[in-house]
């Protein structure tokens, strides 16, 4: 779940030094610099393990025995000679949870390198979007192995799971060696396979910025990123266009303000602007492909304008380390989601399940809406999806979402280091399934072959958004559905039902 607050929250961030048989250390004053002592490492490891043990809700669902994880990793962490090596082991333990909301913040890590190409993760493939030498590694080729190891194997490595450059595709290529990498790849158009030795690039803050700068033309590669016109200043601005027949198209790259110097009111303003445009349109396509979340509350505000009555999209529960009993509501201070406690007895260590109760807002948006989703959608983007799917005039197109929803909270570990931990479980009322690990399946799945994906992404860099939109099979299917709803008089039915609201 995205940014938000819950009433009645216990002081979950209050931690105390851990005494593991040695003289206790004030972790708040201990920095991860210099050479750590055995006592330092023992107490920091125990602190992190305890924070997960007390707060993480999904051990059983993930099939992870946390006590076994401690036995598996503690001695390795204690044997680490440096703080980066220590935290690399801890990262491996956290990675076993397979939860993108669980990660270390501010922890030093070993130097990592990436080859001088940029890739994107598409259709389960690592696709080259920019290359230092396209004659050696052509744009559009699909990387199949790195130094003889299959890409699928490389992606399972927890030591490179922190996303130095966005996207799992780039992580597959990362290495802790400064030696050139040998890449094997194939060209989807000809099915040819090739190999090339590619120099690597050290990854740190300035290096990443430099790599992004020299390959800027390849960065905005996701469908929708070049469609329409921005409605605000900033790299994350919503983009709008008209698809014909008074059908509005809106691309939402993230549930974040258009510029990182702005606050949440800038994101809310964009949703307000879109609502005004939608109220004067016959139909709408909302494209959130590539949106990995942020703040769910402005998105919820928009979705509520599609409701005709109280909607109950999900149910949630928390660990009792967070709450002695289920809180009465979720709130960001201006909006609230009431929680109605289940009649079923609570499980040990958890509050009761609470069904979300979301009220509508006026004016009612009475047009057919198609929502485009993909596997990049996690967190607040998935919350937005489930909110939208609760409305009768919304249908979803594309592929299943990422399945990562945990309402993360941040806990201090030591000076300069924190850990993010998922703190709730959420289930979809319509299916009974959790979002975490399952994702949200579209009403209209649209399959795209590897060749189609690479062709579309190459077109997106050729400066012709209209051509790209015309070849975007997900967008085209969604637009056809909206047009059919309008043609069939569905819009009149929606307006009639709204008159009862």
Description:
This protein is of the alpha+beta class and 501 residues long. It is 29% helix and 22% strand. The protein has 15 helices and 24 strands. Strands 11-12-13-14-19-20-24 form a seven-stranded mixed beta sheet, with helices on both faces. The chain has a six-stranded antiparallel beta sheet with strand order 1-16-17-18-15-23, with no helix packed on it. Strands 4, 5, 6, 7, 8 and 9 form a six-stranded antiparallel beta sheet that branches. Helix 3 runs antiparallel to helix 4 (83-95) and helix 9 (264-278) packs parallel to helix 10 (297-303). The chain is globular, with a radius of gyration of 24 Å. Mean pLDDT is 84; it is low at 3-21, 157-168, 215-221 and 494-501.
User: What portion of residues belong to β-strands?
Assistant: 15-25%
Bin the helical content.
25-40%
Principal-axes geometry comes out as globular
Note poorly predicted spans.
3-21, 157-168, 215-221, 494-501
CA-atom Rg in angstroms: 24 Å
Characterize the largest beta sheet: strand count, sense, and whether it forms a barrel. Answer: 7 strands, mixed
Sheet with the most strands: spatial strand order = 11-12-13-14-19-20-24
Give the rounded overall mean pLDDT: 84
Helix count from the secondary structure assignment: 15
Classify the secondary structure makeup into a structural class.
Answer: alpha+beta
For the termini, the CA-CA separation is 29 Å
The beta-strand count equals 24
């Amino acid at each position: 779940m995205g940014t938000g607050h819950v009433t009645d929250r216990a002081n979950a961030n209050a931690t105390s030094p851990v005494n593991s048989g040695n003289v206790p250390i004030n972790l708040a004053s201990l920095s991860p610099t210099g050479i750590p002592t055995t006592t330092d490492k023992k107490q920091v490891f125990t602190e992190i393990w305890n924070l997960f043990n007390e707060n993480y809700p999904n051990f059983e669902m993930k099939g992870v025995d946390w006590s076994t994880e401690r036995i598996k990793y503690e001695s390795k962490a204690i044997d680490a000679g440096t703080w980066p090596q220590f935290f690399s082991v801890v990262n491996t333990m956290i990675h076993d949870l397979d939860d993108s909301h669980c990660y270390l913040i501010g922890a030093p890590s070993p130097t990592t390198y990436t080859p001088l190409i940029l890739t994107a993760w598409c259709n389960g493939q690592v696709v080259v979007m920019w290359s230092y030498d396209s004659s050696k590694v052509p744009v559009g080729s699909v990387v199949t192995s790195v130094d003889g190891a299959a890409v699928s194997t490389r992606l399972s490595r927890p030591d490179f799971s922190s996303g130095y450059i966005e996207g799992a595709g780039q992580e597959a290529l990362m290495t802790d060696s400064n030696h050139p990498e040998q890449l094997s790849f194939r060209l989807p158009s000809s099915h040819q396979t090739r190999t090339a030795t590619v120099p690597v690039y050290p990854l740190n803050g300035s290096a990443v910025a430099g790599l992004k700068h020299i390959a800027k033309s390849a960065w905005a590669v996701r469908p929708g990123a070049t469609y329409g016109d921005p409605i605000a200043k900033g790299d994350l601005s919503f983009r709008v266009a008209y698809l014909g027949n008074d059908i509005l198209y809106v691309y939402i790259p993230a549930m974040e303000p258009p510029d990182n110097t702005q606050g949440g009111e800038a994101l809310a303003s964009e949703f307000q602007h879109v609502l005004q445009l939608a109220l004067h349109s016959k139909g709408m396509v909302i494209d959130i492909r590539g949106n990995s979340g942020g703040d769910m509350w402005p998105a919820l505000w928009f979705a509520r304008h599609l409701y005709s009555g109280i909607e109950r999209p999900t149910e949630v529960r928390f660990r009792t380390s967070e709450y002695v009993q289920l809180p009465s509501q979720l709130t960001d201070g201006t909006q609230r989601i009431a929680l109605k406690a289940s009649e079923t007895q609570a499980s040990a260590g958890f509050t009761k399940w609470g069904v979300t109760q979301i009220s509508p807002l006026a004016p009612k948006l009475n047009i057919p809406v198609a929502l485009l989703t993909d596997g990049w959608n996690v967190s607040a983007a998935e919350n937005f999806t489930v909110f939208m799917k609760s409305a009768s005039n919304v249908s979803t197109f594309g592929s299943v979402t990422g399945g990562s929803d945990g309402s993360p909270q941040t806990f201090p570990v030591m000076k300069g280091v924190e850990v993010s931990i998922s703190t709730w479980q959420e289930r979809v009322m319509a299916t009974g399934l959790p979002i975490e690990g399952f994702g949200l399946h579209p009403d209209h799945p649209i399959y795209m072959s590897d060749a189609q994906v690479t062709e579309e992404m190459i077109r997106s860099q050729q400066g012709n958004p209209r051509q790209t939109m015309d070849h975007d099979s997900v967008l085209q299917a969604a637009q056809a559905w909206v047009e059919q709803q309008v043609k069939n008089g569905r819009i009149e039915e929606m307006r009639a039902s709204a008159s009862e609201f």
